[in-house]
Amino acid sequence: MLETRLGSNQLFETIFHNTQEMILVIDGQGKILLANKVFLANLKLQEPEVTGKKLKDFVSPIYEDHSFYDQIRETLRSKDSWQGDLYLRGKENLYPLYVRIKPFANPDRISRTMYLFSARDLSSEIVRLNHNLACFDQLTSLPNRFMFKKKLEYALEQGKRFQFNIGLLYINLDNFKYINKSYGYLAGDELLMQVSRRLETSARKADILGYFGGDEFVVALVNIALPRLAATIANRFLVKISLPFLVQQEKFNLGASIGISVFPADGSDYETLVCCAETAMHSLKEQPEPENSYRFFQQEMNFDSSLRLRLESDLRKALHKEEFELFFQPIVSLESQNISGLEALLRWRHPERGLIAPNQFIPIAEELGLIIPIGEWAIQSACRQAGSWQRLGIPPLEISVNLSQIQFRDKDILEKIKAIITESGIDPALLQIEITESSISEDIQAAVAVLQGLKDLGVKIAIDDFGTGTSSLGTLKNLPVDTLKLDRSFIRSLPESSNDQAIVQAILSLGKIMDLKIIAEGIETQDQLEFLQNTRCDAYQGFYYSRPLPGKEIAELLQNEILK
Predict the structure, then answer these.
(1) Euclidean distance between CA atoms 392 and 211, whole angstroms
(2) 347: closest CA among 361, 336, 335, 337?
(3) What is the model's pLDDT at position 125?
(4) Which residue, 136, 100, 70, 551, is CA-closest to 326?
């Protein structure tokens, strides 16, 4: 057949049928004259089912648009060949092919032009692509959680067999979320790609890298001689990550917190090692200054983790079970030395663990989204308590209640406070809402709107922990604020520290210029009190006068003061 149609010899026929590509010979009308064995085998067809038929009979219906064939013809007229992807119908399925169609002169001169159709099966490449999509992160090109698990499990099998150590580093980037939010996801993506490249260049050949999403990377240190060498390698990564990154013509500084677990000391399976390393990382993050550091897992952390889980579970039920209560700390006038107000402080009286400090459960409540209903309960309870004291004959006192950053962003906060004031019947001028500087600095315009709304309700506003945030004088002068509460960190070293003396004097002068009331927090000694008495500070609170007390004890203290 080949000899009669193409004038070819036996050698050509051998090449035609034994090449690795699928080949067709097509005449000028699109009719298939010849099909090699590879084409027939891949589409699971016999030669009589193909020869004499038009190529269009095998092309998938998705190409029924005539413009597709017009495009091929136009390309063949103007260029040497056409190439592209085609789906052809075989006996059992559609087959993805990469096709090249090239015209050539017919040797027997019966027609002017014939076409050589050659194709490569893309099925294996699609399978490989799908494998890559399923196993590797497309942004960083690092193994994803699934693939990292497979690789680490194999390494653990080898570690058990040959008895070597494996260190696991759980890396969480510091400051990434802020940069991603402030500069956009494109800058964030570029940072992640640069971080992954630095990790790759710093890792040893045997190490296994992975990307768990967000700002979290993992590295398995395979076959380390001693567990402490994990710290050496972790420090190498920290140094690399701490170097400035150049993204969109701007320099960015990142750090990282790294939790470390070691096989076999901390665990012998994937889940345990990852959990231990992540626990160590979170334990490090909870420290006041965790940036750019590492921490090994310790068994005590498991206790902390299990305790936290129990607290989370109990915290969800605490409000319904009425386990919260308010303590009150007196705010004392420096001029009269009488109680001029009270700060309401939230406490959780756990049925088994007793009184739990706010710094142990408030962060958990914020993470779980429970701080909004709990905070609303606190304001409501403080206003009701103030009303009950007045009915006992105690003169009206200003009650200060803290508003968390999450509550401050609650779109319904003004309506909720208005409803509480109406329900309790309290004079709104006796309610003071305390907010932190950080609550204001995120979005100044939105903050001013909320603060003005509170002022319109008749409520007073205090900035808590003043001096520790980033408020500028320009910002402060535009805020409808009544009180500044001087942070205890400036009081602690008084009167010995000349620097703290200068800071306190400056804040007091600023407050007076802006006609603001100044309250000093954390007064614990006679010397601290005497220093403040020689300044223009208005009031103070702290253990020197009284620790925070339950409502019943505060009522007794207030009644005793009336009898003075």
Answers:
(1) 63
(2) 361
(3) 56
(4) 551
Provide the CATH number for the domain around residue 31. 3.30.450.20
H or E stretch at 332: strand 324-333
* Residue 174 φ then ψ, to 5°: -90, 140
pTM, entire model: 0.51
- pLDDT for the residue 4: 45
Q: Report the distance separating Cα 20 and Cα 29, nearest Å.
A: 26
Question: Same domain, yes or no, for 429 and 488?
Answer: yes
Range of the domain at 525: 315-562
pLDDT of 130:
47
Ranges in the chain, pLDDT < 50? 1-7, 126, 129-130, 303, 470, 472
Whether residues 269 and 322 fall in one domain: no
d(CA 116, CA 136): 38
Q: Are residues 329 and 280 in the same domain?
A: no
**In angstroms, rounded to a whole number, what is the distance separating the alpha carbons of residues 476 and 474?**
6
DSSP 47: G
Mark whether 479 and 518 lie in a shared domain: yes
Tell me: do 117 and 141 sit in the same domain: no
Domain match, 118 and 155 both = no
493 CB neighbour count, 10 Å cutoff: 13
Report, in this order, helix, strand and coil percent for the chain, each rounded to 5: 45, 25, 30
Chosen domain end from 97, 127, 157: 127
What's the pLDDT at 121?
A: 77
Please report the pLDDT score of residue 287 as a whole number: 66
Tokens encoding 251: 């320099």
- How many domains would you assign to the chain? 3
Note whether 479 and 499 are within 8 A (CB): no
What per-residue confidence (pLDDT) applies to 177? 80
Q: Are 364 and 308 in contact (CB under 8 A)?
A: yes
- The 3-class secondary structure across 157-226, one letter per residue, is HHHHHHCCEEEEEEEEEECHHHHHHHHCHHHHHHHHHHHHHHHHHHCCCCCEEEEEECCEEEEEEEEECC
What does the block give as tokens for 380?
């409501």
Q: What is the bridge-based pairing of β-strands 245-247 and 339-350?
A: unpaired
- Is 302 contained in some domain? no
Number of alpha carbons in the 13 Å side-chain half-sphere of residue 417: 27
Considering the domain architecture, whether residues 438 and 469 belong to the same structural domain is answered as yes
**Structural domain contains residue 310:** no
Burial 407-431 (b: 16+ CB within 10 A, else e): bbebeebbebbbebbeebebebebb
Q: Which pLDDT belongs to residue 262? A: 93
